[in-house]
Each structure stands twice: as C-alpha cells, then as structure tokens.
Design goal:
Blueprint (H helix, E strand, L loop, with lengths): L1 H20 L5 H8 L3 H15 L10 E4 L27 H10 L5 E3 L12 H10 L3 E6 L6 H8 L5 E5 L4 H8 L3 H18 L4 E8 L7 H8 L5 E6 L1 E3 L15 E3 L4 E3 L12 E2 L5 H5 L2 H11 L5 H4 L1 E3 L11
Parallel strand pairs: 1-2, 1-8, 2-3, 3-4, 4-5, 5-6
Antiparallel strand pairs: 7-11, 8-9, 9-10
Helix pairs in contact: 1-2, 4-5, 6-8
Length: 327
C-alpha cells in the first residue's frame, strides 16, 4: 500500500516539476521512475535547493554511478572509449562495490554503467543483485550486443529496475555509427522485451539515443521503430568538448557522484578522462567526498561562473527536436 501511494504521488510530482520548474515535459517520466522512495526524492530536492541558494554544502548522498568497466566491444563514432580515452582500462572490483554500498546506507539509487559496456564485466549480474537485496534502485545501459538468451533471463530475475539500450539510429545509419549488425541487436532487444513482459513487468525498458548532426534525421525513424515496445525513448544531445559561453552552474555537482574503475570519484559522466578528481572511493568515505574541499571548490567555481577547464569545454549538440541534458 505504501509503495502504491508513493508511486501515485511521484507521478504527480514529476508532472509538476518537469512542466513548470524544469520546463522539460519529457522529464515527467524520468522523475517518476527514478525515485524509489520519498526520502530519496526529498534529499535530492533539498540538494538542488542548496544549489539555488548558492550553497556549496549538500545533504546526504543518495545516487552513485559505478563504472563497471571502461572497456567496450564496439567502436562507435560518437564515443571516446575506443577513439580518444587515455586512462587505464579495467574492471570494477565487486568486493569494493559491496563495501561502498554497505558503508553508505543513504544510497537509494545505483547506476551500473559509465563509459564502457557493463555486460563485459563477468560479475555484472552480481552487482545488480547485491544492490537490489539492500532495497536500492538499480539501472544500467547496454549496447545489447552480448545480450544472449541466458543473459536475458539472469538480468530479468536479478531485480534490475531500469534497463536502457543504446540505439542511436536504425538500419544502415545505426551500422555506420556503431559498426555492428542492426538486425542482430534489434532481435536481442525484442527478446529481452518479450521475457520482461512475461516475467517482470515492473522493470522499465528504455531506448537511449545520442543525437548529433549525423543522426538527427533518424529521430522519427527511432520513434517509429520502438514506440509501443519500450517504456520510454530518451533523446540525449551529443556531448561536444569545445569552448562556449557557459552561464549556469551544472546540476550534476549537487546531484550524484561517479566512481570510476580505479576508485576515482568524479561529479559528472561527461568527464571521461577522470580529470575532475574529487577523491577515491577505495580509500575515502563517499559522504566525506560529497562535502569535501575539492568538490565544494568546483561548486563554488560554478556558482561564480568560474568554470574549471573540463567544465568550460563541456557543451552539447543543440537542436529544437531534443532537450538539453544537464542544464
């Protein structure tokens, strides 16, 4: 009963916040599916209020994204992993992940992807089941290339809350961007949807499409291909690393932390080289990092419009057909 009441309430809150505060209608679904509890919603809202008040201090850390690996089996033209990333490749140690989860009881949401393909981690499903056993909301994103029948069944029974599939186009345009057979990936996703529908209908399935000049024309085809099959299609603007006239403090600095494969903690997924290093989760407490000197200096810089080099170069493809990701 309590869960049903919260589900109904968060849908209303999502509608109000998305339409009247963020002025981004598509975020109505995003807000309504990302918050497993009132306490997580309250703390996140409180932290964004601190941003609005110009404070570098934040309250409890509710959301952490773990980079299970920064290795990928594709060479997508829109991604730096196999074209520009210089940092050392690796796998996130499950032992450290469990220790971090246990040491931070306020964590209510866990993302299990950053840069790289999470299904390449041999213990991928165990990351999901451990967080789920603690009542933590889990999500991940995959290119679906490795999503065979056995993996489908394991994931659907793991307790995963949101599965996202990266699909930036359809047909030949997809193959041009991703370098892999489109029909094979489409069949993998459709099989996963079929299994989900039969065995775990509460799980959300989404398509995430990164949109730039090369595939903006495919937005309509993507909608046509997946409308009615998945719960949501999220069009994200392609990250562009170029100087621009930035004006606003990025919400990410008040929202969550990202832990890279070597334990390095950063405040934003756009920092693919881990240059915004604010601590290390293998040797430091995440809550202390969350309000530590380094991240508060970053927040102070954003509030005064003095952006660190990585942030100053963080921009995104602009189109009237898609909404901004960070601002």
């Amino acid at each position: 009963m309590k869960t049903q009441l919260w589900d109904s309430l968060i849908k209303v809150l999502g509608r109000v916040i998305a339409r009247y505060y963020l002025k981004k209608p598509s975020f109505e679904y995003i807000i309504s599916t990302r918050y497993p509890s009132a306490s997580a919603f309250f703390l996140d809202s409180l932290n964004q209020l601190m941003r609005g008040l110009g404070s570098t201090f934040v309250f409890g850390l509710t959301t952490v994204t773990f980079e299970l690996t920064n290795v990928c089996n594709l060479k997508c033209s829109i991604c730096p992993v196999n074209s520009g990333m210089k940092r050392k490749r690796g796998l996130f140690p499950l032992k450290e992940y469990k220790r971090i989860i246990d040491a931070n009881p306020l964590i209510r949401r866990v993302g299990l992807v950053n840069w790289g393909e999470p299904l390449l981690h041999p213990e991928f499903v165990e990351f999901i089941t451990y967080a789920s056993s603690k009542g933590i909301h889990t999500s991940t994103t995959t290119n679906a290339v490795l999503l065979n029948e056995g993996k489908c069944k394991e994931i659907i029974s793991s307790g995963l809350d949101i599965m996202r599939f990266s699909m930036d186009a359809v047909g030949k345009e997809y193959e041009k961007i991703r370098g892999h057979n489109y029909l094979e990936v489409k069949q993998n996703i459709e099989r996963f949807i079929e299994y989900r529908n039969r065995n775990n209908p509460r799980m959300k399935i989404e398509i995430t499409a990164v949109i730039g000049n090369d595939n903006e024309a495919d937005i309509g085809a993507l909608k046509e291909e997946w409308k009615g099959k998945v719960d949501f299609i999220n069009f994200q603007p392609l990250l562009l690393f170029q100087k621009h006239s930035r004006q606003q403090a990025c919400r990410e600095l008040w929202r969550s932390l990202y832990v890279l494969v070597d334990g390095t903690v950063i405040p934003c997924c756009a920092d693919y080289e881990g240059l915004l290093d604010v601590g290390n989760a293998f040797t430091q407490d995440l809550e202390k990092i969350w309000n530590g000197r380094l991240i508060r200096e970053l927040r102070r810089g954003h509030l005064s419009r003095r952006f660190q080099a990585t942030c100053a170069l963080c921009s995104e493809f602009s189109s009237s057909r898609i909404e901004s990701r960070f601002q």
